[in-house]
Write a structure and sequence with these properties.
Length: 124
């Protein structure tokens, strides 16, 4: 099935997604890897707010993308999601709607996805 979803995502929009659906996202998607996740976790530990509204947000685990001359960005491929697993349940519990990455996720992340009605978009 083909789905068009606006970001930030509403739980009602993503609850019927199924493996194999083609999903087209429109809106702001944040990129963050393990170092950024660590900084977000440390900020939350200090009682600070995140630099963006986490509610319904999507974070894309994007690999390094040096831009070629004359280009704003280089390739924007997915990176391994498991490096963010120790930080992800907390972000999901705070309202993050989805993540985009590649690879397997830990049981703690899978449980948090189910608990919060979130989605892991596995990129290939």
């Amino acid at each position: 099935m083909e789905r068009h979803i606006t970001v930030p995502v509403a739980k009602e929009e993503i609850q019927d997604l199924r493996a194999g659906d083609y999903v087209y996202l429109t809106g702001t998607i944040y990129t963050a890897r393990d170092a950024a996740h660590k900084r977000m976790d440390e900020a939350l530990d200090r009682g600070e707010s995140l630099p963006f509204d986490i509610e319904g947000s999507i974070i894309y685990y994007m690999g390094p993308s040096p831009a070629r001359e004359g280009r704003a960005i280089g390739s924007a491929g997915p990176t391994t999601a498991s490096r963010m697993d120790k930080y992800t349940p907390r972000l999901l519990d705070l309202g993050m709607g989805a993540m985009i990455g590649k690879g397997k996720r830990s049981k703690a992340v899978m449980d948090a996805i189910v608990r919060n009605g979130a989605v892991y978009f596995a990129a290939v």
